[in-house]
Structure formats: structure tokens, C-alpha cells
Protein 1
Amino acid sequence: MAHHNTVMNIEEIKRLAKIMTEVGVTEIEIEEKGYRIRLAKQSPIPSITALAPSSFTAITTPTEIPSLASAPTSSPVPEIPTMSLAKDSEPHQNCQTISSPMIGTFYRSASPESGPLVNIGDTVKVNTPVCILEAMKIMNEILSDVEGTIIDIPIKNGEPVEFGQVLFYVQPTTVTS
């Protein structure tokens, strides 16, 4: 029994994110019925915003690794490999994409204990769960809006994503003979 006490639904949040992009607004905050929703586009310069410090825990994560040579050889968190089955000469020609409907953090699995929802080489249908996007401490299951085979996942597990950013490249199932 899930409770739907949220003030705004996903469609309203998507609509707000689209309007923000169209008019060039980088941040919007709405407070209604005891809920606060803050949408902020990432800027090239990292910034730290403190909201109610007593109720949040600061988490520090590296935003980029300069080179693979300096990366640790063993990591406490297992990395889910991101690779491509596409040919290098024409990486994503004739592909469909599954894009992010919101700003958030990309997760390939529904929980840290479970495996990825989809892998490269998997066939997806419309409404197949493909990933989780965390936005505002809410886990949002993202469903495929295309049908085909996953050939590339350009986003790494745990990375932040922008509204409209490509999450998956999908080779359509219709094959020409």
C-alpha cells in the first residue's frame, strides 16, 4: 500500500523542468502543503546548498576521475560495467534512445542488493522498467518508451543526470532482411 502524499506528480515535475530549460531558469523552489520541491540545473561550477542542515547528512562523492591510471584497482563499491555492443564506426546509427525525464541520480538496480534492471544485450518492450532515478529522496522507476535491444548504457551507476540526457541506446526490434 503505497501512499501518494506528494504534492506534485512526475508529469508536473517534468513540465517544470522543461519550462526551466526553455526560459533559461537554473533553479526553482516551490513549497506547498508542508512539502518543498527544489529543481536546480547543474552548473559547470559545483555549488553546495544547505537546506535545513539538521535534517540532512552531507555525502561527499568524487565527481570525476582524471584518468584510469590514477583510479584505485579495488573499489569498496562494485562498479557495474558500462560498455557498448555497437560498432565503433557507426556507434549509435539508427538507434532509439531512452532519455531522462528529470534531473536526478541514475541507478541501474532497484536496490543496492539487487542486480541491474537491464543489461546491454537485453530486449526491452514499452513499459519495461530500465532504471531508477532518485530525485528529492524519491526513487522513481523509469520505464522504457521504446522496444528493442539495449546496445549502450552511457551513464555509470550513481551518476547525476540532466533532464533529457540519454540513458540507454536501443536498437529497434524491427529487422530489415
Protein 2
Amino acid sequence: MAKHPAIFLDRDGTIIKDNGYISNTADVVFFPFTFKALELLQKHFLLFIITNQSGISKGLVSETEVQDVNKYISETLKTHGITILDTFYCPHKTEDNCECKKPKPYFLNKAAQMYNVDLTKSFIIGDHPSDAECGINTGVTPIYLLSGHGNKHKHELTVNSMICNNLSDASKYLITTI
């Protein structure tokens, strides 16, 4: 059975504005280019969201609130014809030293097993150095975004990564290079 290429998307700062620890769907604000960018990408890739949500373990948001926000994002994207196959989130703080917090590759490997993903033909897109590092740790090509917190943390980027202004630019780059 043929394996599929995938795009692993960070959530906050990548597909929606980073409004802190989001506990209410009313605080979800999609970037104006998100729908068109994901529409382009899904023609060639399976789409997943992989997000660190340490606000859960910090007691700032509940796990149910994060699940509700994730569900709202997926359902909103679906109304625009975009299918997110799965959303994976890590509820832990860095100090917890868990196996699922990016840059650790746990969720990328899990998605690869569950959905027959070819990691060598896949990309991870996000606005934190941990997103790019997660890609490198898994053999997935990283694309680092300057949107969200990307510009602020660019100097912390220690791995080789394509750098794009935002998800729109990343999607156009990917479509012209595949």
C-alpha cells in the first residue's frame, strides 16, 4: 500500500492567530489566508494539526476547553472544504519531560503509523523552533514561519529550515516545488 505525504501544522500562530491560552472558541481567529493555503495543500498532502498546549498542565485551560477549540477549528475548516485528518495535542509543560511535546517526534510517528504517512515526503509548518526541530527529529522537512511568534524566536532557530512569512507563502512555496 502506497504511503502518503503529509503536512503537520502547528495551531497557534500558524493557522490561527496566537491569542494565548485559548479556552473559548470565540477567541479563535483564523488568518485571512488560512483557508486558501490549506485548500492548496490538501490537493497534494494529508493534513494534521500537532500542537503543544501546556496551558492544560499549568491550569490555565482545561483539557475539555482545548478539545472544544480543536474541534471548532476542524469543523470550521471542514465548512471550507478542508479536511484535518487528526489533531494531536500535548497537554504537558516542558518540565514534565513527556514523550509528546514538540520537538519530540511522538505525534508525527503516531500519525505515520495510524495513517500510512511517508515522513520522508512530508513537511511540518510552524512558528516555533520546536516545530522545525520536531521535523528534523523525525525526518520531516521543516518550514519555519515568521507569523505568530516566529519573528520573535527566529534567532533561536538552530536547525536548517526553509523560512516563510506565513502559511500562505509556505503553501505557495510547497506547491511550486512538488
